[in-house]
Amino acid sequence: MRKLFELFDSNIPYNVTEETADSFIVEFMIEDLLYTFLADYSNLYGWDIQFGAGESGEVSITNTGNQFTVFATIGSILMDFINFYSPDIFHFSATKTEMSRVKLYSIFAKKIQSSLHYAFKIVETDYESIFKFYKE
Question: How far apart are CA 30 and CA 13, in angstroms?
Answer without folding.
Answer: 10
